[in-house]
Design brief:
alpha+beta, Fructose-1,6-Bisphosphatase, Chain A, domain 1, D-Maltodextrin-Binding Protein, domain 2, 8-stranded mixed β-sheet, globular, binds D-MYO-inositol-1-phosphate, binds calcium ion
Length: 265
């Protein structure tokens, strides 16, 4: 038992240090000349994303060589081990490229498919969000909790738009339905930080379609440990491999779910 507790703490500390190290590298590189490549029409990647990922994966390989890994820039390793690391070495690449200091390193560890550890670090603001299953969620050293907003008209929600325009009509009608019932909608450009800001009570809800496990995993652990709720858009059980996500403080979840589906109030 003692060994188990030590392992959990060690893994969280390891993840925190790794996110900080990669984050400091992102900060040093911010604002410098970049070689920007396109993975898709509007989906960007830079050498900085790749270097940050190499730094993170080197660390995981050295410390936990038997763990599975799924990382954004083309690395996937399935070992059959209990633990899987979901790595987004730079969540918010478009912001980074445009000189907007809103991005983070996001690390999520799932244990036998269940949320276990989450760390999201924005090196520009110094915000280090972290959580571990059953131990609560933190922003730097301070414990965080979701808001207690219970009416949609008081709710500030955040969303993102996928790089693919394949489901644009659905996305736009969903956006319009939500806009007409909430206090406001924001689009900040980092799904991981969006989730962390729901966790810390600044936003009351978040939704997006077409995300990837590395966008979600870290922020979802932080949100759940802060008392939030995460499901698919129709309220189905959250699955990091199914990228349509609805996250909230819990109180407004059913109302948001209804709006996602276009159901009458
Ligand atoms: C993106 C960001 C953005 C979200 C996109 C993601 P990336 O991740 O999280 O907020 O709207 O869907 O792909 O490409 O910057 O790692
Ligand atoms: Ca991402
Ligand atoms: Ca990324």
């Amino acid at each position: 038992m003692k060994y188990l507790v030590l392992t959990r703490v060690a893994m969280l500390n390891f993840a925190l240090n790794l996110a900080k190290k990669a984050g400091e590298y992102l900060k040093e590189s911010f604002g410098k000349e970049l070689n920007v490549e396109h993975k898709g029409r509007i989906d960007l990647v830079t050498q900085i994303d790749r270097n940050s990922q190499d730094m993170i994966l080197d660390g995981i390989e050295r410390e936990f060589p038997h763990h599975s890994i799924m990382a954004e820039e083309g690395v996937s390793k399935t070992t059959g081990h209990d633990y899987t690391w979901f790595v987004d070495p730079l969540d918010g690449t478009v912001n980074f490229v445009h000189g907007i200091p809103f991005f983070c390193v996001s690390l999520g560890v799932f244990k036998r498919g269940k949320p276990f550890i989450g760390v999201c670090y924005n090196p520009m603001s110094g915000d280090l969000f972290s959580a571990q299953y059953g131990k609560g969620a933190f922003r730097n050293r301070e414990k965080i909790r979701v808001s207690d907003t219970s009416l949609l008209i008081d709710a500030l929600v955040v969303t993102g738009f996928p790089y693919s325009l394949a489901r644009l009509d659905d996305s736009m009608s969903r956006f319009a339905r939500i806009l007409s019932e909430v206090q406001g909608i924001r689009r900040f450009g980092s799904a991981a930080l969006d989730l962390c800001f729901v966790a810390s009570g600044s936003f009351d809800g978040f939704w997006e379609v077409g995300l990837h496990p590395w966008d979600l995993a870290g922020g979802v652990v932080v949100l759940l440990e802060a008392g939030g709720r995460v499901t698919g858009l129709s309220g189905e059980e959250f699955d990091p491999h199914h990228g349509d996500i609805l996250a909230s403080n819990g109180n407004i979840h059913n109302d948001l779910r209804r709006l996602m589906q276009g159901e009458p109030g």
